[in-house]
Design goal:
Number of strands: 6
Number of helices: 2
Order of helices and strands: EEHEEEEH
Helix content: 10-25%
Largest sheet: 4 strands, antiparallel
Number of domains: 1
Radius of gyration: 15 Å
Shape: globular
Strand order of the largest sheet: 3-4-5-6
Strand content: 25-35%
């Protein structure tokens, strides 16, 4: 749903492409979906000790795999701490008065 011209309208029903990616890189038993609507991102996550490990399901436009700038690409896994630390920098650069996408 999206607010368009002061009315809520359907934008899409079902996400076949997303479902395929989640199925391809996930196993459904030990992983769960992390969705960040403001950045239009989906990841798979699994618990690892007291933290999380995050798996990219597509080439990530915000997160880098390492300081050399290698892309965090589909199937790559990073610690939740590292992923959220990098995403925090992106979120802090967004003007809170900007309209939602």
């Amino acid at each position: 749903m999206k607010l368009l011209s002061d009315k809520w309208e359907f934008q899409q029903i079902g996400r076949r492409g997303l479902a395929r990616k989640l199925t391809k890189f996930g196993n459904g038993r030990t992983q769960f979906v992390v969705w960040i609507p403001g950045l239009k991102l989906h990841y798979l996550a699994r618990r690892a000790g007291t933290g999380l490990m995050i798996t990219a399901i597509a080439k990530d436009r915000y997160v880098k795999k390492n300081p050399a700038g290698e892309p965090f690409d589909a199937g790559n896994e990073l610690s939740g701490i590292e992923v959220f630390k990098q995403l925090q920098q992106v979120v802090l650069s967004i003007d809170p008065d900007d309209p939602p996408d």
